[in-house]
Amino acid sequence: MPDNPIRTLIVDGDTRLAEQQGSHVDQLPGFAVIGIVHSGAEALEFVSRGHPQLVLLDLLLPDMTGVEVCRTLRSRSAVLDIIAVTSASDLATVRAALSYGVAQYLVKPLSAATLRDRLHRFATTHRALTTAPPHHLSQEEVDRALTALRPPFTPVADQPKGVSTTTLDAVVAQLRAETVPASATDIASAIGVSRATARRYLEHLAVHRLAIRSHRYGRCGRPGNLYRWQGA
Questions:
Q1: Same domain, 36 and 105
Q2: Residue 220's CATH number
Q3: Cα(first)–Cα(last) distance of the chain, in Å?
Q4: Residue 22's CB: how many other CB atoms inside 10 A?
Q5: Residue 52 in contact with residue 27, Cβ under 8 Å?
Q6: 228 bridge partner residues
Q7: Tell me: the pLDDT tens digits for 35-83?
Q8: How far apart are alpha carbons 39 and 41 in whole angstroms?
Q9: Model confidence, pTM
Q10: What is the average per-residue pLDDT within 110-121?
């Protein structure tokens, strides 16, 4: 284990899942689980005395919401990072958590492989920012650190003529950010392209199994397509 592993606190109301998560994290090089608690009050008390560097936080706790925990920690100027690991995926909760500086948002159920990948990315960024010389970071250094937190998107090899990489990246980024299946109209409005353009790119992703297509029936009985990201 590295000399300075990332001191990690697990906060989950489900004792079985908390222990399971703690076991996975403890096996990762560069991490050390220093505590496992099951309520918001316990989390706040532990942070005040245990000084973890990272909190894996369920947002559905028995005594308060995880968002309230985040808000309290930030009001106390706690110097730590938070990764949400939760089944709460409604837009309001996601936005609230991100507004309090949640570094990553992982939706349950998730595989051990996904957790390992995201924590590895977090460790890469954490290491880069904590070992960097004490100077102002360049834009390139900031971009590199932020990119390390997010899984890469590799465009499909047979990208057809007329498909812009820039537009494709924008569609992928927006689709990934959606917490519920989105229509071509939703994506078009969010990134500033026509509905026809958004639909063409979404269909391109669906054909290559990077997006899941489903149907929504309107009042006239005609189906409209919805898309959800499923790429690696």
A1: yes
A2: 1.10.10.10
A3: 29
A4: 19
A5: no
A6: 212
A7: 999 999 999 999 999 999 999 999 999 999 999 999 999 888 888 999 9
A8: 6
A9: 0.61
A10: 86
| φ, ψ (nearest 5 deg) of residue 70 | -60, -45
From 148, 175, 203, the end of a domain falls on: 148
The type of residue at 112 is: A
- What is the tens place of the pLDDT at every residue in 121-148? 888 877 766 665 666 666 666 666 555 5
* Domain carrying residue 222: 165-229
Judging by DSSP bridges, how do beta strands 104-107 and 211-217 pair with one another? unpaired
Number of domains in the chain: 2
Domain annotation covers residue 210: yes
Burial-class residue 27 by CB neighbours within 10 Å (0-12, 13-18, 19+): exposed
Q: Are residues 90 and 129 in the same domain?
A: yes
Half-sphere exposure of 90 (CA within 13 A, CB side): 5
**Residue 183, SS3 per DSSP:** coil
Quick one: 124 and 42 in the same domain? Answer: yes
> Is pLDDT at 214 greater than 90 in this prediction?
no
For 170-197, the pLDDT digits (tens) are: 888 888 888 889 999 999 998 888 999 9
The Cα–Cα gap between 201 and 225 comes to 13
142 lies in some domain: yes
